[in-house]
Amino acid sequence: MSQSPDQNGLDGLTELEAQAMDYALGGGSRAERKAAELRSLSDPDFRAAVERWQQLLSPLDDTTPGIAPPPSVWAAIAAEVTPLPRRAAGPAAKASWWDNLNLWRMLGLGGPVLAAVAVALLVQPGSVGPAVPAMVANGPALVATLADATGKPLIAAAYDPASGQVRFAPVAASDDTTTGKVPELWVIEGQNPPRSLGVIDIAAGRSQTIPRERLAGLKPGSILAISIEPTGGSPTGAPTGPVIATGKLAAA
Amino acid sequence: MNRPVQPVTPGAAELSSLLLKAADGDTAAFHAFYDRTSAKLFGVILRILVERQESEDVLQDVYLSIWRKAATFDPSKASPITWAATIARNRAIDRLRARPPRAQVPVEAAFELADDGPAQDAGLIHGDDVRRLTAALASLEPRHAAAIRACYFDGVTYDELAEREQVPVGTLKSWVRRGLIRMRGALEGSEA
Predict the structure, then answer these.
(1) Does the CB of A53 have a partner CB in chain B at under 8 Å?
(2) DSSP letter, residue A134
(3) CATH number among 3.40.50.1980, 1.10.1740.10, 3.40.640.10, 1.10.20.10, domain B1-121
(4) What percent of chain B clears pLDDT 90, i.e. is strictly above it?
(5) Residue B76 scores a pLDDT above 70
(6) What is the mean pLDDT of residues A184-212?
(7) Chain A residues 200-239 with a CB less than 8 Å from chain B
(8) Burial class (CB in 10 A: 0-12, 13-18, 19+), B150
(9) ipTM
(10) Identical fold, B1-121 and B126-192
(11) Choice among A102-116, B18-32, B82-96 with the minimum mean pLDDT
């Protein structure tokens, strides 16, 4: 049992460096890895530290014997990467983001499997994208553009403290599985673990009312994140599915 | 802090070019990339997950991610195989963490599986790097090195390892982190 490590458990490392090592090596719990994943989306210094450790450790992969996968794996992949014929996308009959993958495919790049694009600015009504009324009756509104891991904007979000509503404008689609899955919104405040703001319906211009108590303390600098969860939301209270987008809240 | 840029193997240069083409929607180039790298990635995933079907599912997910993210690959930051293998490791570990609690497949089974095929894509990582890193790892205290290997290769958590070794988690983390710092020091040719 011996000696305990440093009081802070960091062994003289910065907290950033320790978290980066842990993530690159892979020993963290599910929640710790999720937190690191979220941080890497919003913190370039952290991402760079993770990449340095991944790079350093990567030669170890060469000591793992390769094993040829069965042909069925490529067949399944090939079915997905074959570019889809372009279809005329009519106006969406149903408003759900998830129901309109084809529409989003049209909007975004001709990329086959895609993850699309097109920034909608909530704070500038009348600009591209769904027209969303300006908000803010009193108090500063907060806005965030949520981007994927590559920095590509996916969703714009705006919070109106007067009404307690959050609005989303989808600016892209995800190719994540849609069946039985829903997007869930999280807020990360400082070093705290992600806190759920609930399952959301990201339909153009639709308002989302989130219970006020959950929004308490929402302020500029907090990070919003959206993960894909089973219908009904994360069963664990922490993000369990892929994080598709993150963005920092700023005063509008 | 920063390592010198890795020597580029001929394999890496070719893979980079295939990825660039895949980013432009070239499915034939993507298929070639798959053929060159899938055995390595499958090996990495299978070592962590052990279960074959689950590993195949993850492999499929990983390549769909690679196809989608090919345009974000930056050859100045990582070799293509490092980039792809990192995606595979992370996805496999996340899948492992998402499993409901149940009896783990014995570790021996992984090695058994891992022996049933030759690496069809050896040599994608520069041999000197592999030798230096494995030497650095081997120079650590055996328990520390074993902990690092278990995390990296098998996806074992700090918590599980601490229990296995009967030490507090903080101690286990300390072993691992100090070990990694020493390895980095050894690779940089200076004491950590």
Answers:
(1) yes
(2) -
(3) 1.10.1740.10
(4) 60
(5) yes
(6) 70
(7) none
(8) buried
(9) 0.84
(10) no
(11) A102-116
Nearest to B43 among A22, A58, A64 (CB): A64
By mean pLDDT, which of A45-49, A103-107, A247-251, B77-81 is the weakest? A103-107
Task: Specify whether the CB–CB gap between A143 and A250 falls below 8 A.
Answer: yes
* Chain B contact for A55 (CB, 8 A cutoff): yes
pLDDT of residue A192: 73
Higher-scoring residue by pLDDT: A120, B155: B155
DSSP B75-129: TTTS-HHHHHHHHHHHHHHHHHHHSPS-PPPPHHHHHHHHTSS--TTTTSS-HHH
Whether residue B133 and residue A82 make contact (CB cut-off 8 A), yes or no, is no
Contact B64 A56 (CB under 8 A): no
The CATH number of domain B126-192 is 3.30.1060.10: no
How far apart, in whole angstroms, are the C-alpha atoms of residue A218 and residue A249? 9
Which among A5, A59, A67 has CB closest to B39? Answer: A67
Pick B176's closest partner by Cβ from A27, A61, A112.
A27
Chain B residues lying within 8 Å of A86, measured CB to CB: none
User: Is the predicted pLDDT of residue A195 greater than 60, yes or no?
Assistant: yes
A58·B39 Cβ contact <8 A: no
